[in-house]
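User:
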Amino acid sequence: MENDGKIYVQIDDLRNAGKATWLEEFAHALQFLKYGNVELSVDDAERDEREKEVAECLLSRKLSVKEIAETELALKRYGGNHE
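Assistant: Predicted structure:
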């Protein structure tokens, strides 16, 4: 969140972001509104929990095979698992 109170989502369009990427970033914006800010650090357990929460939520939605594979990789990276 910026000083003006707006939340900005930055996605690299050159990578052809899929639906899962867009949904993930919007979910993180909602988490920010609900829980507040988390420092950006891969060592932060709270950040990892937020990443897992979003990935698990996305996997319960209708995604393409490619989007599911990308989301499962993210979930695995942050210590979750999907059956």
